[in-house]
Amino acid sequence: MISDYVDLVLHPERYHGHGRRPPFFEGWYFKAISPDRSSRFAVIPGIFLSDDRERHHAFIQVFDGVSGAVGYHRFPAEAFQVSRQGFDLRIGANRFTLEGITLDIADDQGVVQGELRFGMAIPWTVTPREPGVMGWFGWMPFMECYHGILGFDPAVSGALSVNGATHNFNGGRGYIEKDWGKSFPGGWAWMQTNHFEQPGVSFTASIAIVPFLGRWFPGFLAGVWHEGRLYKFATYTGARTEKLAISDHHVEWVLRDRSMRLEVLAERAESSILPGPNRADMSTRVPETLQASIAIRLSVLGGGAREMFSGRGECAGLEVAGDVEKLMKAIR
For the whole model, what pTM was predicted? Predict the structure, then answer.
């Protein structure tokens, strides 16, 4: 029903797969960093539905951003149970909400147990005109991949035991986002960090090859949460990319709109390979690190540029994957 579709678009955190035909995937990304930064984890629950029913499955990925270890814990698709009224997901004995996650996993990929609690999640703004980070593209029912940002810089508490080692997150910081659709893009760069010298600052950004009506464009978004306000740069806001340069060592990106300019310099770090979805299976190679650093400068234009914020974020998540040369050529 139309009313159900509208309600779902206005709630990016919810499961979008009810009644969808394969191929389809949906995954939520929970990042947790301990106060001393010695423990850095990303926990990614989700589901993958293929044209080949033999490949249907639910999963929980556990990525140790310090050691680089990746555990891909596979479950029958029937183990994936999610509420229609809000985001409340269970995969076997494991539970995920915006308020916290509970893990109880023991398989050939390892043993992970414990509970993490997340403080108030501040999402990317959702309005009927711009239902989340996708903007008005969120209303389009034919996009290859959708994105949602569910929580900038929530406080984290609790502990995880991972293969016998205990990680304490009391007083830590977190981040929550998600993706869903038919496949990951053919190429993208993604980055996120909360760990600036000034507390309460959070930054996330991505640019990707976006198929649209038989063609494609370099779709992008960037958000700076600073002093209780979200500063947005995105394809749908009229912002544009002045420069995009991706090398083996850096991602340099400059964005601007009519009133503000955002300069980004991310230093790449050693990455681990996480499985990601394409139309056939969870076989896309996704190189990710939680050891990058990202320097940003946000300036107000007009009458001479005035710097609003500059800083370097550590413990940064960073992915550079697929045909990023195609993205750079499009910007040039």
Answer: 0.97
